[in-house]
Specification:
It is built from ten helices and 20 strands. The chain has 421 residues and is α+β, with helices and mostly antiparallel strands. It folds into three domains: 119 residues, Copper binding periplasmic protein CusF (OB fold (Dihydrolipoamide Acetyltransferase, E2P), Beta Barrel); 95 residues, Beta Barrel (OB fold (Dihydrolipoamide Acetyltransferase, E2P)), CATH 2.40.50; 185 residues, Copper binding periplasmic protein CusF (OB fold (Dihydrolipoamide Acetyltransferase, E2P), Beta Barrel). The longest helix has 18 residues.
C-alpha cells in the first residue's frame, strides 16, 4: 500500500502559485459551477476534492468539477494523512476521523454499492494548513526565480524559448532552456486561471504567446533552465465602449491600437472589475519607474510581482517623481502611504483582485476599458475586463504597452484568492 501512487488530480494544488497564495481546496469550494453544484447521487467509486462541511461522521466533498458528495466515515475506514507533493503513501501517517477538517483536500475510496451518504473505505487527507504553507513557499520561489514576457521564438527541437519583456530602454530578451524535467502547462483558451491549465508540450507554445516561467534556483549563464512554465494565447484590447447590449450580453468598443470596432461577448465566467481612480493610478505608478516619466520595467512577471519588487524599484530613486501616471504624487513611498500601508499596494494583480465586481448593466457608452479575451481576429469573449482605466490610458505609450503585455496573466483568478490571504 505504501507504494501506491497518488493521482495527479489529488496532488494538483499549485493553482494560483504564479500570482496568489490561494488554497486550491478553498478556491474550488467557492468557485461557481452553476448546475454542477447539485449533490451527486451516483457512486463513482472514488472522490477527489475539498472538504466543504463536516457533521458528525459525515462530510461533504466538492470535486474539482463542482459535484458535491455526502460521505460517511464508518469506524472501520482507513484514514491516512500525506504532505503536499507526496507521490505515494510511503510517508503517510494514520489519523482519526476527527483530524479531517474543512478545507482539507481528500481522496476518498467509496464502498461498492454504497448509497447516499456514501460509505468510505479509505480517506487520504492533505490538511488545509499544509496546502497554504506549501503554496506560500512556492509563491516565494516564483517571486524570486520567476520571469515572464511575450514569446519571441521557440526552438522545440533544442528546447529553447526566447521571451521579451519591457519596452524602450527597459526592454530585455531572455533565453529559457526547457529540459525533460521541465513541467509545461497551457492555459485554457477561455481562462487565465492557473488551476485550469493543462499539460502541453513545448510545440504548443507559439511566438506572441504570453509565458511565465519558474527558473531553477541554481541556473546560471545566458540560458536559464526552466523548472516550470505556463503559456497561453490571449488578445489584449484597450478602448472605449461605443454600445452596450445587455440582452445579448455583448459590448462594442473601438480598439485603440487597430482603430477597429470589436464585439466583445460577456459570458458567465467573464470577470469584470471597476477600478477606483486611486487603484488605476497605483497600477500605472507600479509600471512606471520612479524618476523616469514614461519608462517601464518588465511587465509583471513572477519575479517582478509584489510590493517587495515595487519598493525595491522605488528605493533605487528615493524622492524622485513617480511619472506622469502618478497623478501628481511625488514618490513611490507617497503612493504606499496613500494606500494605507497595504503591502500589496504596488502589485497590479492584487489591486485588480481587490477592485469592485460589476455586471454588464453597470457598463456605459463612453467607458474606457481594458480587457483580456480569447485569441482571434474576429469577435472575442471577455476573460477579464477592467473599467475605470482612464489614468492608465492617459499614461505614456510605453507604459500602456507594458500594462497591456503583462496585466492579463493571472488576473482572472477566483474571488476566493483574495479572501484566502
Amino acid at each position: 500500500m505504501s507504494r501506491v501512487k497518488l493521482s495527479t488530480g489529488f496532488l494538483r494544488m499549485g493553482a494560483g502559485l504564479l500570482c496568489v497564495t490561494m488554497s486550491t481546496a478553498v478556491a474550488y469550494a467557492r468557485r461557481p459551477h452553476g448546475a454542477a453544484q447539485a449533490a451527486a447521487v451516483t457512486n463513482p467509486g472514488h472522490v477527489v476534492g475539498a472538504v466543504t462541511a463536516i457533521s458528525g461522521s459525515t462530510m461533504s466533498v466538492r470535486t474539482d468539477a463542482g459535484l458535491t458528495y455526502a460521505v460517511a466515515i464508518p469506524a472501520g475506514a482507513r484514514l491516512l494523512r500525506v504532505a503536499p507533493g507526496d507521490k505515494d503513501l510511503s510517508n503517510a501517517q494514520k489519523i482519526a476521523a476527527s483530524d479531517v477538517g474543512v478545507g482539507d483536500r481528500v481522496l476518498v475510496r467509496l464502498a461498492a454499492g454504497a448509497t447516499i451518504p456514501f460509505d468510505a473505505t479509505s480517506v487520504i487527507d492533505i490538511p488545509h494548513a499544509a496546502i497554504v504553507a506549501k503554496q506560500r513557499e512556492e509563491q516565494m520561489a516564483w517571486q524570486r526565480h520567476g520571469v515572464g514576457g511575450l514569446v519571441k521564438s521557440v526552438d522545440a527541437a533544442n528546447g529553447v524559448i526566447v521571451i521579451t519583456s519591457g519596452t524602450g530602454a527597459a526592454a530585455k530578451e531572455e533565453t529559457l532552456k526547457v529540459t525533460p524535467a521541465t513541467v509545461l502547462r497551457r492555459y485554457a483558451p477561455d481562462s487565465v486561471d492557473y488551476a485550469r491549465a493543462t499539460a502541453a508540450p513545448i510545440s504548443a507554445i507559439r511566438p506572441g504567446d504570453q509565458l511565465r516561467a519558474l527558473l531553477a534556483p541554481d541556473t546560471a549563464g545566458p540560458d536559464k533552465t526552466v523548472r516550470e512554465a505556463v503559456s497561453g494565447s490571449f488578445r489584449n484590447i484597450a478602448g472605449k465602449i461605443s454600445s452596450v447590449n445587455a440582452k445579448d450580453q455583448t459590448i462594442t468598443l473601438r480598439d485603440l491600437m487597430t482603430k477597429k470596432n470589436v464585439t466583445v461577448h460577456i459570458g458567465p465566467t467573464s470577470q469584470m472589475k471597476k477600478l477606483t481612480d486611486e487603484q488605476a493610478k497605483l497600477i500605472a505608478a507600479s509600471t512606471t519607474a520612479p524618476g523616469t516619466p514614461g519608462a517601464t520595467h518588465a511587465p509583471m512577471s513572477g519575479g517582478e510581482q509584489g510590493a517587495g519588487a515595487w519598493q525595491r524599484r522605488a528605493a533605487a530613486a528615493p524622492g524622485a517623481a513617480a511619472g506622469t501616471a502618478a497623478g501628481g504624487m511625488r514618490s513611490a513611498s507617497a503612493w504606499a502611504a496613500r494606500a494605507g500601508g497595504n503591502a500589496a499596494a504596488g502589485d497590479p494583480q492584487q489591486i485588480i483582485r481587490q477592485a469592485a465586481v460589476i455586471q454588464i448593466r453597470d457598463l456605459r457608452k463612453g467607458d474606457a476599458v481594458m480587457l483580456v479575451g480569447t485569441a482571434g481576429d474576429g469577435d472575442v469573449s471577455a476573460i477579464t475586463l477592467l473599467v475605470g482605466v482612464e489614468p492608465l490610458l492617459e499614461s505614456s505609450a510605453s507604459t500602456q504597452n507594458a500594462l497591456m503585455a503583462g496585466w492579463s496573466m493571472g488576473s482572472g483568478e477566483d474571488e476566493a484568492s483574495s479572501s484566502s490571504q
